[in-house]
C-alpha cells in the first residue's frame, strides 16, 4: 500500500527494515538433474562440443556475439569472462555425465536495491527442453530470492526472440513492456522486452517449479504429466 508524505503525495510503500543485499558469489548450486558451478576455462572444450551438436548456428541469432569457429577461440572467450564479477557466469553441469551442457549468468547486479537479471542464457541441444534446463533456471532463482533476499529478478530479450519470450512466461515471469530501439545488435535494430518476478510472486512461482520438477510429474519415458503453466494456475 502506498504511503503519503506530509504533503499528502503518494510516495510508495514504506520499507523500514530494508538493507542492501549480499552480492552474488561463486557458489555451487545443486539439483536433482544438474548443478550450477562458476564457469571456468576447464569447461570450454566440453561446452564447445555440446554446442556443436546443434548442427547450425540458429541458437546464436539473438546473442550479442557471433559464434566462435573453433575450440581455441571459444576457450579464449571463456577465459575472458570467467573471472568477471558482473556478469557472474555459471556452467550448467549434467548430473549424469558430469559435463557442462550450457551456461547462464547473473548480471546488472544491483545489491543496493535488491535487483538482478538472469542473462547470457545459452543452452546446448543436450540441455534445451529437458527437466535440467528448467531446474537450472530454478536453482538460480532460488539462490537470488531465498539465499540472497533480492526483491526483483529480471529477464530481458530481443522482442523478436519468441522462444525466449515463451520461456520467460512459462517460468513465471511477468511481461512488463518493450523498450523500443534499445540496441543496435549485429547491425540490426533491437527492441528489448522486459520481464520480471518480484519477491511477493516468488512463493507461488517456486511452488509450481518444485511440483513440475518432482519425479512423479514425469512418466517412465520422461514425458511431463502436468505442464508448468497448469501447476501455476
UniProtKB/TrEMBL annotation:
InterPro entries xrefs: Acyl_CoA_acyltransferase, GNAT_dom, Ribosomal_N-acetyltransferase
Q: Which Gene3D superfamilies does the record match to this protein? A: 3.40.630.30
| PROSITE patterns recorded | GNAT
Domain of life, per UniProt, equals: Bacteria
Q: Which SUPFAM superfamilies match?
A: Acyl-CoA N-acyltransferases (Nat)
A Pfam family annotated for this chain is Acetyltransf_3
All copies of the N-acetyltransferase domain together span: 34-191
What is this protein's record name? GNAT family N-acetyltransferase
Organism for this UniProt entry: Kosakonia pseudosacchari
Amino acid at each position: 500500500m502506498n504511503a503519503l508524505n506530509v504533503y499528502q503525495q503518494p510516495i510508495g510503500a514504506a520499507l523500514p527494515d530494508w538493507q542492501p543485499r549480499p552480492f552474488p558469489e561463486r557458489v555451487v548450486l545443486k539439483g536433482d538433474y544438474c548443478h550450477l558451478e562458476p564457469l571456468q576455462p576447464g569447461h570450454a572444450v566440453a561446452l564447445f562440443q555440446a554446442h556443436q551438436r546443434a548442427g547450425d548456428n540458429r541458437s546464436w541469432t539473438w546473442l550479442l556475439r557471433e559464434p566462435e569457429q573453433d575450440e581455441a577461440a571459444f576457450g579464449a572467450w571463456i577465459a575472458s569472462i570467467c573471472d568477471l564479477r558482473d556478469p557472474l557466469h555459471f556452467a550448467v553441469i549434467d548430473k549424469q555425465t558430469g559435463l557442462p551442457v550450457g551456461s547462464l549468468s547473473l548480471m546488472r547486479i544491483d545489491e543496493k536495491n535488491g535487483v538482478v537479471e538472469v542473462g547470457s542464457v545459452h543452452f546446448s541441444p543436450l540441455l534445451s527442453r529437458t527437466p535440467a534446463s528448467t531446474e537450472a533456471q530454478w536453482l538460480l532463482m532460488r539462490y537470488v530470492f531465498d539465499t540472497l533476499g533480492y526483491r526483483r529478478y529480471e529477464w530481458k530479450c530481443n522482442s523478436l526472440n519468441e522462444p525466449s519470450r515463451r520461456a520467460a512466461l512459462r517460468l513465471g515471469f511477468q511481461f512488463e513492456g518493450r523498450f523500443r530501439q534499445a540496441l543496435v545488435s549485429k547491425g540490426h535494430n533491437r527492441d528489448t522486452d522486459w520481464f520480471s518476478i518480484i519477491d511477493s510472486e516468488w512463493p507461488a512461482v517456486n511452488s509450481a517449479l518444485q511440483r513440475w520438477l518432482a519425479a512423479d510429474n514425469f512418466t517412465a519415458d520422461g514425458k511431463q504429466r502436468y505442464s508448468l503453466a497448469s501447476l501455476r494456475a
